[in-house]
């Protein structure tokens, strides 16, 4: 084996580990219900616990964003609930409507770095930092229920130049996309749900219990890393820029969001736009077989793809395959 090969091997391993983390960390703490309510503060909106914590997050965010292509445009859209940050990337594909990528809990736009090259081959892409989560969006009015969650996203999309969008959401981002589609579908051309939580099945009690230590900011960082690794099938999560960003958000940002309500089968069966459900066979965020059966039964115009060997980090593990699934859904 030559010296060049020896030097390349650690880089390959780092890339593989990073790709698995892209989603694992971003969506790992999908719901930290006990922690979120135990750590209530008088503020009715999500906020940074300190200026120093915000600075630490921004430093980590910028480092993770360095792995993204340069956005063609940065947009801050005013809604009734706050200002929503979008990044626009010009694609090379022929999709009639742009993709809008919704990240998981505490993850923000940089978690899509490993997916953008393949998704840009489909068409133009927006990434968004979810309102009320760590990121560059700024919440300034309480989000009190599922209707508010749909309303802020609808208003944010209304501030973009296009009329309709192909939503792609992972984990809680998938729930956010589905929640908009069942409540205010006018701007939704299609929905892709990547191992979405609280859509096709509830969350196992064991996973919720294991998430509690990850929600407490003064607990050791290793506890948060341990839970994130658990959701990604044991993948390492240290010394990765996106992981550092997510950990900084988990530690320094106080969520003030309502717990998501399970999307009902009646709501899903009433959807009229194309829907793609991508379900990871080793996910710990729901029962994969139950989620698969529900999706196959209730989606009226749905495609269900089951990645048997994938964890909840599925779009970090299979970015090209997921892009191909979306391209087939959109007919491009």
TrEMBL record:
Keywords (A to Z) from UniProt: Membrane, Transmembrane, Transmembrane helix
Keyword presence, Acetylation: no
Top-rank taxon, per record: Bacteria
Pfam families: Abhydrolase_1
GO molecular function: monoacylglycerol lipase activity
GO CC, any one term: membrane
Source organism per UniProt: Glycomyces artemisiae
InterPro entries linked to this entry: AB_hydrolase_1 (IPR000073), AB_hydrolase_fold (IPR029058), AB_hydrolase_sf (IPR050266)
AB hydrolase-1 domain boundaries: 98-230
Protein name (Swiss-Prot/TrEMBL): Pimeloyl-ACP methyl ester carboxylesterase
